[in-house]
Design a protein that fits this description.
Layout: H1 28-39, H2 42-49, H3 61-73, H4 78-104, H5 117-127, H6 134-155, H7 167-181, H8 199-204, H9 206-220, H10 226-235, H11 238-251, H12 257-274, H13 280-307, H14 312-340, H15 344-355, H16 374-393, H17 401-404, H18 407-414, H19 422-436, H20 466-487, H21 494-511, H22 514-533, H23 540-561, H24 564-580, H25 586-589, H26 611-619, H27 639-642, H28 648-651, H29 677-684, H30 686-706, H31 709-735, E1 743-748, E2 751-756
Antiparallel strand pairs: 1-2
Helix pairs in contact: 2-3, 4-6, 5-6, 5-7, 6-9, 7-9, 7-10, 11-12, 11-13, 12-14, 13-14, 13-15, 13-16, 14-16, 15-16, 16-19, 19-21, 20-21, 20-22, 21-23, 22-23, 23-24, 24-26
Amino acid sequence: MKDYIQVPASELDKPYELTSTRESNPFLWLRVCCCCSALRPRYKRLVDNIFPEDPKDGLVKADMEKLTFYAVSAPEKLDRIGSYLAERLSRDVVRHRSFVKFANIEEDTPSYHRRYDFFVSRFSAMCHSCHSDPEIRTEIRIAGIRGIQGVVRKTVNDELRATIWEPQHMDKIVPSLLFNMQKIEETDSRTGPPPSPPATDKEENPAVLAENCFRELLGRATFGNMNNAVRPVFAQYSHHVIQEILGHLDARKKDSPRVRAGIIQVLLEAVAIAAKGSIGPTVLEVFNTLLKHLRLSVEFEANDLQGGSVGSVNLNSSSKDNDEKIVQNAIIQTIGFFGSNLPDYQRSEIMMFIMGKVPVFGTSTHTLDISQLGDLGTRRIQIMLLRSLLMVTSGYKAKTIVTALPGSFLDPLLSPSLMEDYELRQLVLEVMHNLMDRHDNRAKLRGIRIIPDVADLKIKREKICRQDTSFMKKNGQQLYRHIYLGCKEEDNVQKNYELLYTSLALITIELANEEVVIDLIRLAIALQDSAIINEDNLPMFHRCGIMALVAAYLNFVSQMIAVPAFCQHVSKVIEIRTMEAPYFLPEHIFRDKCMLPKSLEKHDKNLYFLTNKIAESLGGSGYSVERLSVPYVPQVTDEDRLSRRKSIVDTVSIQVDILPNSIPSDDVVNNTEEITFEALKKAIDTSGMEEQEKEKRRLVIEKFQKAPFEEIAAQCESKANLLHDRLAQILELTIRPPPSPSGTLTITSGHAQYQSVPVYEMKFPDLCVY
């Protein structure tokens, strides 16, 4: 007989209310779950351990050894181990089949919470599998196609959430299906609908499965969604249109310029379709063909100019020249438009490709045939190619300057900047501005002028990164040299000075740290000194233009670094120039009618920017100003020879005396020297000369201690060149000895004849005669 416990009367009113015991002990269920895993048989735990969490990791060898050892130790468990392994494998297969079954079920009601973006990306990647094993590769591709088919079936009928038809999904699905369809045999491509293949082919052939999936996709597309489904198909073959137009242009290369210009205009309109979907070889083929026709157009123009004569022939040739210029402008526009639609990595390759075509005098690195162009045609093709490069670089934004101006591109780009053609130098500077200006500041710096307040320009600037700093350490001297020599060209016009000023300003904004700022100020002071000394015999307009350029830049850089004493000195000099020498300012010198001075040597020093005051002002703000005392000297390279310039050694003379033994002693006096007033004056000033020599030696030692290595190398190389020139002159004199007093040897008709001189006619030195 069981004992029953009497229920209290207070609980009779709540017979169905249950009291949960989980609240009293919240960790009870956790303990129970932990115990359940320990209660599972050991062989099941060992079998579960051999399956990794990530299938890519493969089987765990240590766990396999444990399972093998357990099976050997307990052979009676082999049947259970085998049955459990089969259960695990069948479970995975059932999961796969259940996913396929779920994908084939068409839903009657839309699902607002379900998204398939991840599945589209993953299944599209599986369709492009490149596994080394062909069987595994085929299985992965088939699985990807089936996954895409399942996603399509689940979403195409959902009119409220038609995300599958969006371009970002169709651009992945359609190319994946076309990639697997391309291996279908030509015999299977029929005009009508093909008969349904066997079930085994559907399951094992990715091409057949992809074709059926694509047919199903297009069959489910509505009128509004058909454009998104068909557009990726046409994008795969859009470059064929460009190839056909280029082939037509090649066939019509000898037609009239109007016909060729029309074909190029059609190509310009079609380029926007094919540019973004083009691949590398196609892009290079397009640019190579366009550059070839550009060279042909320049060649036709040069031939017409050379073959022109008087009268009506000149009128015809001038009209042909205008037509050829229309063709050239159309080609340049097409190149620029095509390049602007390319991604950045392809655009950098095209920049290198075009730069490799630019001919430079004295080099054979370019790949363009200019043998039949002549000097005028070569100059014309240089301008056309640089204009094309300017169009391609427009809008190009690189994260680091090393990416935009690598060494393999910077060296050939700067070579035309030293040519004796102001238009070529302008194009090179504009290309550099496109690549340097990463924050769109160039429009704010347009025009050389004295800016009252640089803060009003709202210059965009970021902190200089490590890559940009290393770029300036490696290539800074090269940039300074080209700016220095570009300012001293005799054919410079106002635009050249404006572009040079913009170059200095962009370097200050994009690439300047404290060290670069000091170098730029040294460069500006060196330009001012060159305009005053005028070793190159520049006209007065160019000398005043250089002075105006220096004033505009120092005004800009002083406000950018915001050193009050430096700004005060620059403002004071500009104020004095405004009153006494307005031709030293850009607002006056570049006007049409400006009065020029006769010389610059008689001006007051207050009109010039003084190095000692600049060093004093910057030194008080923590700048390292030791290098300001070292004059800037451009680095000596071989580019002057390549660009038909005078050697820098001819324009810059550097004489450095280091050893004190090379200085003549003032104490040594020749005994035969007469005592004159000059000798007495020299004896009195001996102490002063000794102090000058000591100061000279100190400056030399300081220069070699603090100057950059590039400048020291430039000084040594220039001195070595002078030494080699003197040595060559001496050797030339020693090769041809003076005639002997005893006679000469002559060769007549192949026979040597010796002509003797009588003894009484011989001329001997005085020391040899008694």
